[in-house]
Amino acid sequence: MKQKILSIDNxxxxxxAGADRQYAVQHVDLELHAGxxxxxxxxxxxxxxxxxxxVMGLLPAPHVRVAEGSIIFGAEDISKVDYERLRExxxxxxxxxxxxxxxxxxxxMTIGNQIDEIFRYHVSMSxxxxxxxxxxxxxxxxxxxPEKIIDAYPHELSGGQRQRSMIAMALALGPKILIADEPxxxxxVTTQAQILQLIRDMQKRLDTGxxxxxHDFGVVADIADxxxxxxxxxxVETGTAKQVLTKPKHSYTKSLIxxxxxxxPRKARLRASEVVLRAEGVYKSFGSGGSFFGFGKPSxxxxxxxxxxxxxxxxxxxxxxxxxxxxxxTLARCVIRLIDCDQGKIELGDVDITKLNxxxxxxxxxRIQMIFQDxxxxxxxxxxxxxxxxxxxxLQGVERHDAVNRAYKLLDTVGLxxxxxxxxxxEFSGGQRQRIGIARALSLKPDILVxxxxxxxxxxxxQAQILQLLDEIRTQMDLSxxxxxHDLRVAAQVCDYVAVMQHGKIVxxxxxxxLFVAPKDAYTKSLLAAVPGKDWHFxxxxx
Amino acid sequence: MSDFWSRYRRNxxxxxxxxxxxxxxxxxxxxxxxxxxxxxxxxxxxxSEPFTNGFLLGSDSLGRDVASGIVHGAKTSLLIGFVATxxxxxxxxxxxxxxxxxxGRVDDILMRVTEIFQTIPxxxxxxxxxxxxxxxIVSIVIAIAVVSWPGxxxxxxxxxxxxxxxxxxxxxxxxxxxxFRIMLREILPNCLSPIxxxxxxxxxxxxxxxxxxAFLGLGDxxxxxxxxxxxxxxxxxxxxxxVCTFPGVAILITVLAxxxxxxxLNDALNPRLKERQ
Amino acid sequence: xxxxxKIFKYVGKRLLQGVPxxxxxxxxxxxxxxLAEGDAxxxxxxxxxxxxxxxxxQLRQKFGLDQPLPIQLMVYLKNVLSLDLGxxxxxxxxxxxxxxxxxxxxxxxMTSTIILAVGFGVLxxxxxxxxxxxxxxxxxxxxxxxxxxxxxxxxxxMMIVVxxxxxxxxxxxxxxNVAAFYEGWDYVKDVSRHLVLPTITLSLFYLALYTRMMRxxxxxxxxxxxxxxxxxxxxxxxxxxxxHVLRNALLPVVTMAGVQVGALxxxxxxxxxVFAWPGLGMLAxxxxxxxxxxxxxxxxxxxxxxxxxxxxxxxxxxxxLDPRIEVN
Lengths: 543, 277, 328
Hints:
- The complex is a heterotrimer of chains A (543), B (277) and C (328).
- Chain A is α/β, with parallel strands linked by helices.
- Chain A contains 21 helices and 20 strands.
- In chain A, the strands form 4 sheets. Chain A has a 6-stranded mixed sheet, sandwiched between helices. A 6-stranded mixed sheet of chain A has the order 16-17-18-13-19-20, sandwiched between helices.
- About 1% of the residues of chain A have low confidence.
- Chain B has 277 residues and is mainly α.
- With 328 residues, chain C is mainly alpha-helical.
- In chain C, a hairpin with a 4-residue loop joins strand 1 and strand 2.
- Chain C is globular.
- The two termini of chain C are 13 Å apart.
- The interface between A and B is medium-sized, with 30 and 19 residues.
C-alpha cells in the first residue's frame, strides 16, 4: 500500500445547541493513501459532507466545530493549525470540488481570473507564466478552446464545463488530496461519466488521494478503492469497495444496497389492447426574449418537443427517459395539459383533449392526474393535508362528506396515519409528503397517472418505498402510468415500455427488457454506458 | 399564532417598537381627553418656552399649545399612514397578482404602467396631486397611495411569478381549479408575509410623506398634524426652536418604532431568511 | 457577438424603452393639467391674474381648447417636444428657461449627495458587515435606523439650529454670499460652504438606506457557495472580502442607487426649500406658493426625464459590473 497521507482519528463535530442532534459527526476514523479513492457514502444528514469540510478547515464557524479527535495531514493536525497555515494548505496541498459548480464559482469573475488567484496566493510566478499554466490546465481537463474559456464567465459555460473548470482549479498546484463533495450529482449521466473519468485520469497522473463524498452506490462501484458508510454521524462500515458492495456486513449498508434500483429491466407484463392515452405528432416550442411590449417575434426559440408519438395501454407503465433539456417534462405537461402543445393530438380514450377549452376539459381532468418531483414544492404549505386531498373531488362536484371519506381512505392507501388529515404539510418528511401527493393524484380516481421524476428528490431508501407504493397502487387500481425519469435504473425497475428522448425527439422506444439489453440507437447506448456502477449491476444480474 | 409571537418576541427592538406604537395609539385615541381644547385655539402667551406659562412643550407664535398639537396630530399621522398604506397595498396586489399570474402581454402592459409610476419622482408627483385636488385628508391619502403602490406591485408580481410555477399550483390546475380561486386561495396566502412586512414599513414612509407635504403647506388646513406644526414653526426657528423640534421628535420616534416592528415581523414571518444570516 | 456589441445593443434597447415612459409621463402631465380647476389656460396663465384676456384667448387658440381632447393632447405633445412648456407670469419668463436656469444648482446638490450617500453608505455597510455583532456594527446599525426614520426637513432645520445659529460654522441659506461678489477660487469656496448642510441633510436618509442595504447584501454574499470555494482555494480573507464578496454585494446597491434618484429629487424639494438653495426644488416650492401650476408641471416633467436618463446611466454601469446581463 502507498504512503498514508491523511488520517482522521476519533473525529467528533459539535452542532450548535438546538440542532436535531448534538454531534454532526461522532468518533469517525478514516485513512487516505496517495493515489487512492475513498468514498464516503451516506444519505442526507449522515454527516458525510461535514467530515469532508472539516478536513479543509471549512466548517461553518463559529456554530459548528471540531469537538475532539484529530485530522493528521503529514505531520500536522489540521484541526489545530493556525489560520495562516490552513490557508497555505488549502488549494495547494488539499483542494476541493463541490456539487453545484454554478454557485461554487464567482459569477462576476472570469474562469481565468479564478484560476489565476490560486497561483497568486500560493506560488510566485510571473503573470505570463500564470496565464500559460492556466491555459494548459484547461487543456488538461479536456475543455474545448481554452483560449476562449479562460476569458469566459461561469454562466457562459455548460454544467459539465463548469465542473471541469473547477477541477482544473482544484488540481492547479498538484494537491496531495482532492476532496470531491458530490461533484457529479447535479450533472446528467453522460456528463457524470465523463467527469468521473476525468477525476480518475487526473488522479493517476498526479497520484492524488481522493476523498469522494456521494450518496450513489453506482458511483461508488465505478471509482472507489475503499468505502466508508456513514449513518447519522457515525461510521457503520468500512472496507474495500468489493467487500462492501458484494458482501456488506452492517444491516444499514445491506438495506441501502438493497434499496438501489437495479439496472435489471423488469419483464413486461402482458400488453392490454385498450389504448388509454395516445399522443400523435406533438410539437411544443418556447420563445424567449426579443419581444417588445409583447409584440413581435421572440428572438430565440427552443424546440422542446418535436413530433412525438406515444401510446399508453391500460395497466402498463411507459417510461420516458432522457437527460435534462430533452423535453421529457415538457411532454408530460403537454399530455396533462398544464401547457398547450403547438401541434398534434393528445387523445384520452377517443377524445382529443388539445381541442377542448377549460370548461370542456374539466370532466376529463379527473381521468389523468399527476405526481410531481419536489415533495416540498408540490404541497401548498398553507393548506391542511385533508383539504389538499379532498379539494379535487369537491371541485368535481363530489359531496363534502364523501370527499372527506375518500380522503381518509386514501391516507390508508398511501400508508399514512388518518390523523394526518388535520396537519399541515411542513410536519411531514419528504417521503411522507410524496405519499400525500400520490393521495391527491388518486383522489379523482384517475385512469392514468403522469409521474414526473417522482423519486429523484428522495433518499435512496425512501425512493424504494415510494416506487413500491406506486407499483402496488398501479396493480390495485389497474392504473396506467406515464413515468418521466432521468434515472435509467429507476426506469428499468418500474417501466414495461421505455421511450428515450433527446433534443425533444423520441430516438428509440421499446419494451424495457429489449431496449436495455440490446439498444439500437447510439444515444441510448451512450446513456446506458454512462449509468454509474453499470458493471456492478450487470455482474449482479448475471449472478 | 403563538408560534409567531414567540418568534417575534425574540427581537427585543421589535417588542419595544410595538410598545411605543401602542403608546402613541393610546395617546392619539385619548387626545381630546388629554387636551380637551381645539389644538388650533390660541390659549396662552405666544412663543412661551417649554415648561413656562403652563405649556409643557412651549407655544408657537400665535400662542397655540405645541404639546396639544402633537397629541392631536398623532391621530392624523397614524390615520393617514394606515389608510394610505391599505389603499396602496390593494392597488399593488391587484396589479402584481394579475401581472405575475397571467404573464405575457398582461404582464407587459401592467408592468410598463408600474414602471412609469416608479420612474416618476414620487414626492413631486404627490405634491402635484395634492396641489391640484386641493389639500384635504382625502386628497393626501390618495396622493400617498398613488405614489406608493408600485413597490407592492413589483413584490407581489415577483411572488406570484415564483409561486405560480410551483408544483402545488400545477396540481391545482390538474384538479380543474379555476384561475381566480388559484390566485386567491392558493397563491395569495403564500405571499402574505412579505406583503405584511412591506406594508408595515410603508406606514412609516407614508407618515414621512404626509409630514413632508404638510411642511410644504399642503396639509389639510382644518386638521392638526405634525408636519403642520413644523411648517408653522420654521419661520421662527431663530427665536423658538421648540416649535419645530418636538413634532420632529414625535415623527422620528413613531417612524422608528414602526420600522422596528417591520423588521420584527420580517424575522418572525420569514424565519428561514433569518437563519441564513 | 462580442460583449461590447452586446452592450451597445442593450443600451440602444434601453433608450428605446425610455421613449414610451417619457411619452406616458407627458400624457399624465396633460391629464393633470386638465384635472385642475378651470381649463388649461387658467392654469397656464396662473392665478396671477396678470394675463390679459387677449393673451388668454390667444392661448386658448394655440392649445386648441375648443378642439376635442385627443387633439388637445396632440397639440400638447407637439409643444412639449419642441420644449415649449408655457410661460410663467410670476417670474415673467418661459417655463423652460426658468427650469434650465435653476437646473445647475440642483444638479450640484444631487451629485454631491449621491457621492456622499453611496460612498459612505457602501463604506459603513461594509464595515458593519465585516465587524458583524461588534460595537462598531451596533453603532452603525443604530445610526442607520435612526436616520432612516428622521424626516428630511426636520434634519435640515436642526442642522440650521445647531451648525448655523448656535455654532455659526455654516451659512443658513442660499448658494452664495449675496453681498460678497466672490470670483474664481473664492467663489468655489463660498458655494462649497453653502453646499455642506444641504448635502448632509439630503444624504442622511439615503446614507442610512445604502448602509442597511450594503450590510445585508454583504452578509448574503458571505453565505454564498463561491465564498466557500474561495476559502478552499486558500485565498486570504482580505481577498475574499474585497474582491469576491464586495463586487457581488455592490450589484443590488447600484440598482438601488438608480431607483432612488426619483426619491432624491423629491427630497431636494424639501431640502432646497429649507436652505433656500436656488434649484429646481426651491422653484417647485415657490411655484406651489404662487399657485403657478404650469411651472410645477414643467418641473415634474423635467425631473421625470432626468430620472429616466439617470436610470439609463445606472443600467449601463450595471452592465459592466455584472457580466450576466444579456441582450434579451
